[in-house]
């Protein structure tokens, strides 16, 4: 478990293209969690465990988290040679390019975790909406009180004008 309380789903090395002028590929130690992707410089110590939180927060400043709530898509750009190139598109439009060996399957793992995260969020949103609607809806009346309070309902088929004279006038002929 990481300090955020999320368990690591996948760990390993990824290469990230730098934002600089030369756009060099830099190795990053990555930890994929149920909440997002942690990018750690390769020489950086592992993220602190919960029992080691007394350490100064300065080393953690190099850890970058790409949270799924801020991710839009993961686009697989191409498979070339031994690498798979893919792009993580963030909600604000920023694109982050990665590459890894084809057999590592980082792009698929990130996509799968992102979809699962978004599905969990959608389910929580629906539950929240239903709870709000239940709190706003009037209290249901017991069946006996509801029956006494409301007039008897007439089935639609009987309220049809063809059936309104039934039983009233015995001389009415029903020739169809």
From TrEMBL:
Q: Superkingdom, according to UniProt?
A: Eukaryota
Q: Which GO terms describe its molecular function?
A: phosphatidylinositol phosphate binding
Presence of keyword Oxidoreductase: no
Question: Quick one: where is this thing mainly located?
Answer: cytoplasm
Give the keywords, sorted: Cytoplasm
Which GO cellular component term is one of those annotated? nucleolus
Intracellular or extracellular location(s): Cytoplasm
Q: Where is this region: Disordered?
A: 41-60, 129-154
Protein name per its UniProtKB record: Pleckstrin homology like domain family A member 1
Q: Which organism is it from?
A: Ficedula albicollis (Collared flycatcher)
**What lineage does the source organism belong to?**
Eukaryota, Metazoa, Chordata, Craniata, Vertebrata
